[in-house]
Amino acid sequence: MDDDAIWVRPQLGLDGRVEIPRGRLPEHSIDAHAARQLVHDELMLDGRSRLNLATFVTTWMEPEARELMAECQDRNLVDKDEYPQTAELERRCVAMLGDLWGAPGTAVGTSTTGSSEACMLAGIALQRRWRARGATGRPNLVMGANVQVCWEKFCRYWDVEPRLLRVGDGTTHLTAERAVAACDAQTIGVVAILGSTFDGTYEPVAGIAAALDALRDRGGPDVPMHVDAASGGFIAPFLDPDLVWDFRLARVQSINASGHKYGLVYPGIGWGLWRDEAALPRELVFDVDYLGGSMPTYGLSFSRPGAQVAAQYYTFVRLGREGYRAVGQDCRDVARWLAREIGSIGAFSLLSRGEELPVLAFSVAAPDAGWTVYDVSERLRAHGWIVPAYPMPQGLEDLHVLRIVVRNGFSRDMAGLLVRDLQSVVARLTGDEARAPGARIGFHH
After folding, report:
1. Is 400 helix (H, G, I), strand (E, B) or coil?
2. Distance between CA atoms of 346 and 406, rounded to whole angstroms?
3. 5, CA 20 to 30 Å: which among 48, 303, 353, 402?
4. Can you spell out the DSSP letters for 258-271?
5. CATH 3.30.1330.10 matches 63-316
């Protein structure tokens, strides 16, 4: 028995030391309680998800939702013949999202493992439609350098040239002028982001669509759009209803969103929708004979639990438009309050203030401060907070920022505790410990 062993309590059914397996399947079985304790103890080393202000992913759901998910974990969503009601809940969710996003008729869509899979499916559809128009050569996809990495992954996997356009010159994301200038006969589409992961801002979807209309009208290529609404798809319809970004724009052919972000469901679930059947090439939809029935399917996986779909439908039923509006507004209000408080510290310059996504990004105000956003991020971890620090994308890569994502369950009280700890960190970094909130004099005997 080596050092990678623990003493197991006799009440767990074993008496003695149990080796912790690391690289080889153990020879013998152990008691279920002991196995659970081994795994549980190691997982204690993870960060606390509720204090993870880096992630957009939902970290809290109601007990009723968790119970419902536990009931559905064993159902393979793809087996629609065996679990027809789970499939019906998926269909209802697609219909609700199509209505929410202004589809002109019955939208076509599917749930996915996450929003990134939906991006892959949307990209494949754009590529196939481009080929169907008789195009040849190597296709390209136009997008800002601030896109999520899944789009670069799509381009690499399906041999599409990624035209990643620089940001900067007064903006942190893609502009209509830059998008149109990059389009040519090889362009399969333009990706616009409704809620950048870098700073939470919306790209001008309607402006990009109008510029592409003008490009077509003057004899240029007719380039479709996809909207990556991973986060904004569950924020803008409720908080910014007058913002036109979705299927109300004829040029928008497909939209993806993450149900496990502001859709308020545990990971992982995403949604991919197309404005109509014409936008999704029929050859990409498979009719598969599977476990006794015929099943149309469009996805990259044949095995997914139905739990997240059931939880998404539960959340739609539970909250409705009123509830989503209230949750989103609360998140935005907390983000705006945080922005004001952080701005008042005086040590930071705000890049975004939670005015679109409930997200704020900020940098160190003084270039010669002697400390960086990475120092702040590291010291906040000592208080339990996970606040990421990173450089902005190409065009602003010399600008390094901290980002805070306000999610459902992150209250004003918790935000106040974060501000207190941030003030304390800044005070210590600047050598002004005496003014740190809650500063104490050490005990001297």
Report:
1. strand
2. 21
3. 48
4. ETTTTT---SS-EE
5. no
